[in-house]
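Record filed here:
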Amino acid sequence: MTTLPRALGTNTARLEGRAKVTGTARYAADHGHPDGLFAWAVPATIARGEITGVDTGAALADPAVLTVLTHENAPRLEEGEDPTLAVLQSPCVAHRGQIVALAVATSLEAARAAAGAVRLDYTSEPHDVLLGLDHPGLYAPETANGGHPADRERGDFDTAYDGAAVQHDAVYETPPLHNHPMEPHAATAWWEGERRLCLYDSSQGSSTVQRMLAQLFGLGPEQVQVTSEHVGGGFGSKGTPRPQSVLAAMAARVTGRPVTLALPRQLLEAVTGHRAPTIQRLRLGADRDGRIQALAHEIVTQSSTVQEFVEQAASPSRTMYVSPHSRTTHRVTRLDVPTPSWMRAPGECPGMYALESAMDELALACGLDPVELRLRNEPDREPDSGRPYSSRHLVECLREGARRFGWQHRDPAVRGRRDGRLLLGTGVAASTYPVLVAPCQAEAHARADGLVDVRVNATDIGTGARTVLAQIAADALRLPLERVRIHVGSSDLPAAPVAGGSAGTSSWGSAVHKACDGLRRQLEEHSEVPATGLTATADTTEDAKRGEEYARHAYGAQFVEVQVDTVTGETRVRRLLGVFAAGRILNPRTARSQFLGGMTMGLGMALTEHSTMDREFGDYAERDLAMYHVPVCADVPDIDVHWLDEEDPHLNPMGSKGIGEIGIVGTAAAVTNAVHHATGVRVRNLPVTPDALLPHL
């Protein structure tokens, strides 16, 4: 019997690549109808208060404008789980930029002009938009995001810290950060009768959008069809349903015609979530050999008055290093700001920035190499839970990264290297992200023509999910890849979790593998496929619970070299290396892109990205890519990725861990640690900007 080459582990090009580069891949706003309409949203111009008057006369004077929806005439929604989706239901304004009206017209230009012609009167109230350590509204939430306990304490931190030979106590701050996917949040909706809603939506999970729309419009899930076949990025901002889908469905119901709504980029910061700012106090107490005895990580963050969202930034400090005496807490206050939400590596990203910066400072205080300090604090079991690790190869990542980077040639002296007016430095940081998995369903159907259709409501947000799932299916079926047809991105397919939390491939892939393995067994029992085909289904609800007796995480280490201009204060990254232990890498080509994208995003977090709250107006000033600066090619001259061949039998049938998040974790700290090595200036408030460095250069 001929043994087929395995599909998994090969550099397979994306199956949808040609469709994307030729423009035939259609996104949510590309599904126009001959009688389709366009909508444009009107944002609130106050930060807190109430609408007292609505004048849509000028807007409706244009015959191209069919309607303007406001809280006075919009369809009433049922109560849902997410209060940010209760759009146009009340005259109350909770934050600047909240959508308070929607103009609908026969052209995009007419809809935009009509939105500009809507006149609203407000009664404005004093607003509170600034976070601080002494904010009187701070409180302890019941839990942080992801069900993490808000507070955890082990041992006697105060006594252990007071008795530590080496102490470090500092506050680190991360600013508000905003997701800016290439494709804006968009939806095209239409109704088939009164009880059937259809929608193309830019979403990381159409099953979730389906369930939400069914709740809000009083429908059964089977009466709502949501398609998210091609999605142009999300980074978490499309991980939960957003207002565009609700508004498009409302407008389509009122007009009786299909409606497309694409939110302009200037509105995204107000209505599609962001990473909340954090103020993090980190205390480390160690013996003179650098072994941590006491660790405290105390988080202050913010949410909106609409909904509680608590960035779980202290959670990685509970699991990362030896810490026999530990205190980790979260405090939050509710402000008159947009509701924060998921952004790539929520919790781990800001939390590990603070922890890895503090580790660098502790290494200096102990007179140790930063890599060596981390090696000395390697736990043999997860400190917080006491569970054994399914696999943990952080030490190997640090050592392999040091070898590849040439760390052994590093002069530990601060401000010791110079190239003309440039100061040069190197830095390191570790990274981690949990292995998450959720229940999923899938179906595999063998056709009489020899092809196999694999159906699962996964969402490909540009990560290559289609391709990797097809590879998983081909291997499980023991068939060539070209005989597999993968179907994703529709709520009509077997239910699947969202593309987020680095859990997509593990969750979807487990179900696809199970269904295809079952189908293969059926095929082995038949000499030929019947005309009606053969079908196998899978549900991994029980499978997803396996392995919970282990602590399961991916790990990595980032190494950075920077240059700082002593005249301008400008920081540039010269080279950036990441080495990761993330289980089995299923497709090196798409995996490399994920790691590179995450590290580039971490570079942006360190040097360019931030949103500034305007105290007077109560909104964020950086509302487009001209003001919110993401890294461009010139900012990343030399970036490299490597990974270890990690075997872990306690994960899933593929042996994989998630990789979408871990690249960003640790990168910002590695950059700022390198900046300190170059300049002697410790920047604890991101991003590193010239004004923070110049006074010291």
